[in-house]
Design goal:
Layout: E1 6-8, E2 11-13, E3 17-19, H1 28-37, E4 41-47, E5 62-66, E6 72-77, H2 86-99, E7 104-109, H3 115-126, E8 132-136, H4 150-153, H5 156-169, E9 174-177, H6 186-194, E10 199-202, E11 206-208, E12 212-213, E13 218-219, E14 230-233, H7 238-250, E15 259-262, H8 268-276, E16 281-284, H9 286-291, H10 295-310, E17 338-342, H11 352-360, E18 368-369, E19 372-373, H12 387-391, E20 398-402, E21 408-409, E22 414-415, H13 429-441
Parallel strand pairs: 3-4, 3-16, 4-7, 7-8, 8-9, 9-10, 10-15, 15-16
Antiparallel strand pairs: 1-2, 5-6, 6-14, 11-14, 12-13, 17-20, 18-19, 21-22
Helix pairs in contact: 3-5, 5-6, 8-10
């Protein structure tokens, strides 16, 4: 029987599924409903310091990209941090934690970039007896223009400085939430670790604009005839988030830093993918907003069944197993050869593979054989690029079959075998220079 219990940065929860800091965690009412549905923890929607209340727009705050069947695959928001009074939030956090002591309760924070401001709010949050804090260095709109959110998260020196302040002024675990709106996620992650962060969470939303109303000539959705950029999340950002999680997990400077993964998680399989790359737990927002809190039941049941099937007793049994298999392009085996293979029993003769290959790739798929409509792979032209399998509407109709060692590649006339990367390949001028230097030295 699989054990789904999770301990992340010292914070315990009955399962690894947490709700991310967002509208679903804005008040006790929502959080209690979430806990009743089975969520293992929440990150309370970002709190700010006392003062004039945050003002959100009284109009469209969300935009979306839909698939052909109207499924939301990309979700955009221009919502700011909580607009509820600080003390109201703190009182509710304290009561909910006392009523649900087995669930993880982490509080997201965003205040001006001064030590006194962070010290003051940490003291008040600590009194709630919550389990930890998450420093919101990711919000790309509204708050960043005020010197907070992504304005901090895009400057590694600021991340390190604020993280160090927080570690000095609280006993609680400190999780640093990173923005994806940077050229490399490694510099911010390394800065968080240098500052003493107990963990990082990523990704926050991707800076984006969801579309333009070409009749009104206004960005969509408009607010009083004007539009703005916002933060995008949902399934479309999952590939970006997976890559960034993998980068941190395999980077020597951040090795061992706990990672809470966020980005496009709708199913238990999504969570497993992140954990396989090194994440200790996952946070969900968009899926809960679209489908409701009860989706966590399917996530829990699916993960439990999969772990039993694979013989994993705990999350630690498979966490990080895929990370060592992530590498840079220059280290891929250039002697590895595959060819596309079409299952004629499954083929529906739609022709999409032929058109894609004929128009944009290598002219390696027929459209006619012996005067009849038929799609077959021309091995002499196939480079194994996988485009045909990607565009095929029938699952497993087109597969990529590796050539065995010693088998002739009809395209190149060379027999398959060996394991040369770009670092050793004869076409690499740097590889030639390295070999020459070694020869001369010898």
């Amino acid at each position: 029987m699989a054990d789904l219990r999770s301990t992340f940065a010292g914070i315990k929860s009955p399962n690894p599924f947490w709700l991310a800091s967002a509208p679903p965690t804005d008040k006790a009412y929502n959080v209690i409903r979430a806990f009743k549905a089975g969520w293992g923890g929440v990150v309370w929607k970002t709190l700010g310091e006392d003062g004039p209340p945050i003002v959100n727009v009284s109009g469209p705050r969300y935009g979306a990209i839909h698939s052909a069947d109207r499924r939301v695959i990309g979700f955009n928001n221009i919502e700011l941090i909580t607009d509820r009074p600080l003390q109201v939030n703190l009182d509710e956090i304290k009561q909910v934690k006392r009523d649900w002591p087995d669930r993880a309760m982490v509080v997201s924070l965003m205040v001006p970039c001064t030590e006194d401001a962070w010290k003051a709010i940490l003291k008040r949050v600590e009194e709630t007896e919550c389990d930890g804090v998450e420093l919101n260095f990711g919000c790309p709109h509204g708050m960043s223009e005020r010197g907070m959110g992504a304005a901090v998260g895009q400057v590694p020196e600021y991340i390190e400085m604020v993280t160090r302040w927080c570690k000095q002024h609280t006993r609680m675990p400190v999780i640093v939430k990173l923005t994806p709106n940077v050229s490399s996620i490694l510099r911010p992650a390394e800065a968080a670790k240098r500052g003493g962060a107990d963990a990082v969470s990523l990704i926050n939303t991707v800076n984006s604009m969801m579309g333009v109303d070409i009749d009104a000539m206004t960005p969509w959705p408009p607010v009083g005839g004007m539009g703005t950029h916002g933060g995008m999340c949902g399934p479309v950002v999952k590939p970006i988030a997976l890559n960034m999680v993998a980068d941190i997990a395999r980077n020597a400077e951040t090795a061992g830093l706990p990672i809470s993964a966020i980005g496009g998680i709708e199913k238990w399989r999504d969570a497993v993918e992140y954990m396989a790359l090194g994440a200790g737990n996952v946070q969900v927002c968009t899926a809960a907003m679209i489908y409701g809190f009860k989706i966590v039941g399917e996530m829990i049941a699916g993960l439990d069944a999969w772990m039993d099937e694979k013989g994993h007793r705990s999350i630690e049994d498979f966490r990080g197993l895929a990370a060592p298999k992530v590498t840079d392009w220059q280290h891929l085996n250039l002697d590895y050869v595959v060819k596309a293979q079409i299952d004629q029993e499954l083929c529906i003769s739609c022709g999409r593979c032929h058109i894609a290959c004929e128009d944009t790739s290598h002219q390696a798929i027929t459209s006619m054989v012996d005067g009849k409509r038929k799609f077959e792979v021309i091995e002499e032209e196939c480079v194994g690029c996988n485009l045909c399998a990607v565009v095929c509407p029938v699952e497993n109709c087109i597969t990529m079959v590796p050539l065995a060692d010693g088998e002739l590649d009809k395209r190149t006339g060379i027999r398959v075998g060996g394991h040369r990367t770009w670092m050793e390949h004869p076409n690499n001028p740097m590889a030639k220079a390295t070999r020459k230097a070694k020869y001369e030295k010898a």
